[in-house]
Specification:
Blueprint: E1 3-7, H1 9-22, E2 27-31, H2 33-37, H3 41-50, E3 55-58, H4 61-69, E4 75-78, H5 84-91, E5 96-100, H6 103-111, E6 118-123, E7 131-132, H7 133-145, E8 150-155, H8 165-182, E9 189-193, H9 195-201, E10 209-212, E11 232-237, E12 240-243, E13 248-250, E14 256-258, E15 263-267, E16 284-287, E17 290-295, E18 303-307, E19 320-324, H10 326-331, H11 339-344, E20 351-354
Parallel strand pairs: 1-20, 2-3, 2-10, 3-4, 4-5, 5-6, 6-7, 6-8, 8-9, 9-10
Antiparallel strand pairs: 1-11, 11-19, 12-15, 13-14, 15-18, 16-17, 16-19, 17-18
């Protein structure tokens, strides 16, 4: 193997249980959108099913159908918006819940007499999808009066990672707005929190279900949370080593110059595999526990790293390089870095190995 990602199933299960505990034992909806953040939605859905997580979240109706076609029978909530056709199609499926963000859609469901399970999405500050909060009560009443199959009400927190005082206040306000809407309605699923909501705001989270994505995969935003275990390790193997004859620019664009007589290695992983170009701004790989900085621009299929002089004899072709894991990502200080972006960018050539 040239380049692969190792997915630690036991640690994934551990993280789900830990997050469930942190959420004061709320039900878990496992978010497996975007092919489970690049790791493999069907495999992850099965692991979740093994530990009793029978509710999955995806981004769109197509992703829900893919899971069904692969034999996954869990309940599925489509978190994103859907078109009218999707509502008609979902009506024919079992346990595929769709989100609703507008009165047009509610009217459509009523007029077509659709009975599929729906969740009302309420905008408490994300300003993406969802009913405005002053419309929320009307939307709920509309569902009740017209006997639509209203299964859930939810909202989405927009600033749970940074944890400045302002972002904390904003999140608490979002939760408060959501609470006020719910009142005494007796609805099966009430949910507002993503992973970082659970890790950073556990005592405030309202509802009976939490939607866990990144946290299951071992991260809390772009940093490590010591309560969670590493799930994701991206690895590659040294494929070539050479010493510079003279001071030399490395890679495209001549952005980095390596001194004469220095050793560098080439790794068969590039941005087509998900090695984001911004990782050349300060990331490194670990080979036999030796820290080797990434040098020069990252290419489509290859990345160059510097081998420190005193370690020259300790690294050879074929040695395994750890490219990214929670500790490495946590140690980086790159403004563009985004864990969700890194995971979902993993390319087709990267083998997914479940251990
Ligand atoms: C993606 C998504 C989640 C999961 O978020 P994480 O931060 O990865 O835990 C939860 N809710 C909604 C609506 C989402 O789109």
């Amino acid at each position: 193997m040239r380049t692969w990602v190792e997915i630690n199933s036991e640690n994934l299960k551990y993280n789900v249980k830990m997050l469930k505990k942190l959420s004061n034992d709320k039900d878990v909806l496992g978010v497996v959108k975007a092919n489970a953040y690049g790791l493999g939605a069907v495999k992850i859905a099965k692991i979740l099913n093994d530990i009793g997580v029978g509710f999955l979240g995806v981004a769109n109706f197509e992703e829900a159908l893919e899971l069904r076609n692969a034999g996954i029978e869990s309940k599925i909530l489509v978190l994103g918006a859907s078109f009218s056709e999707d509502f008609k199609e979902a009506e024919k499926e079992k346990d595929i819940h769709l989100s609703v963000s507008s009165f047009e859609t509610l009217e459509f469901i009523k007029n077509k007499n659709l009975k599929l399970p729906i969740h009302l999405k309420i905008d408490t500050g994300m300003t993406r999808l969802g009913f405005n909060i002053n419309d929320a009560k009307f939307a709920i009443d509309f569902c009740l009066e017209n006997k639509l199959n209203l299964k859930g009400i939810f909202s989405h927190l927009s600033d749970t990672d940074l944890l400045t005082d302002e972002s904390k206040d904003f999140t608490l306000e979002q939760i408060e707005k959501f609470k006020n809407i719910i009142n005494n309605h007796n609805i099966e699923f009430i949910h507002i929190s993503n992973s970082a909501g659970v890790t950073n705001f556990s005592e405030y989270i309202f509802g009976n279900l939490v939607r866990l994505g990144l946290g299951m995969y071992g991260f809390s935003g772009d940093t490590k949370d010591k309560r969670l275990k590493n799930v994701f390790t991206l690895k590659s193997k040294v494929i070539f080593i050479k010493e510079t004859l003279e001071a030399s620019f490395v890679s495209y664009g001549r952005t980095f110059k390596l001194a004469a007589g220095e050793t560098y290695a080439v790794l068969p992983i590039g941005y087509a595999d998900g090695m984001k170009k911004y990782l050349s701004k300060g990331s490194y790989v670990l080979i036999n526990n030796i820290k080797c900085p990434i040098i020069g621009s990252i290419c489509m299929d290859m990345t160059m790293i510097h081998i420190p002089k005193e370690k020259r004899e300790n690294i050879k072709v074929g040695d395994t390089a750890i490219i990214l894991n929670t500790d490495i990502i946590d140690s980086l200080n790159i403004p563009e870095l985004c864990t969700w972006d890194i995971m979902t960018s993993l390319g087709r050539r990267v083998k997914r190995i479940f251990i």
